[in-house]
Amino acid sequence: MDTLRRFYNIYFSSEKDFARKIKPLLGFTPVRLSVFKQAFYHRSMNVDQSNKSFNNERLEYLGDAILSTIVAEYLFKKYPAKDEGFLTKMRSKIVRRQTLNEIADKMGLDLILSEYSQGKMSNTMLGNALEAMVGALYIEFGYKKTSAYVIRQILMKYLDIHALEQQNDNHKSIILEWSQKNGHEVEFVQMSKIKNDKRDFFRMAVMVNGDKISEAEDFNKKAAEQKAAELAIVELKI
What we know:
Number of helices: 12
CATH superfamily of the largest domain: Ribonuclease III domain
Shape: globular
Distance between the termini: 61 Å
Largest sheet: 3 strands, antiparallel
CATH architecture of the largest domain: Orthogonal Bundle
Radius of gyration: 20 Å
Number of strands: 3
Order of helices and strands: HHHHHHHHHHHEEEH
Structural class: alpha+beta
CATH class of the largest domain: Mainly Alpha
């Protein structure tokens, strides 16, 4: 039955153009085609007030939870001798916004997402779409097959996990440790919060002993803090 539905979706469905675009990306034609389309449908497209719920935010919520579980299980099996602290840090490195944005970019999700969003497309939207896609995969296949797909087709293909092991790019943590060791007072101050493309946009600054060292902006407050901290590390030659 699923085989017939996939055949119908790619040759006869009203969404056959979408099916033909997403098949090379996924490696298969989905049965639940509308769910996968919704995974790439940004809320900026909700110009019709009667259908404001058709966007990828709910799928993103689901995919975030599923992805975190898959990554936790993957790391638990991959590193049988590592403790909870190591596993937690590695999971955070993988599921954080920057890593997901990079994976989504490598996968080419922007080619589809750009058709279902209005205004300037941010990197964060890519990571969100990836999480939403994982949510759609879960609805399509259930947990077991989704886990196998995410590990084989996403993590193993687009993530250099050994490089990630050595990476310490929690810039906020680095500058806070530096301040404690050297007796400096560091603050992360929100300079502004505005609406940009119907979303909150934050400008954050790093203050050292009351002096502004750097500032940066992003749709995500924590991401803006990390960007500002990275600039401060360069400025302070830490």
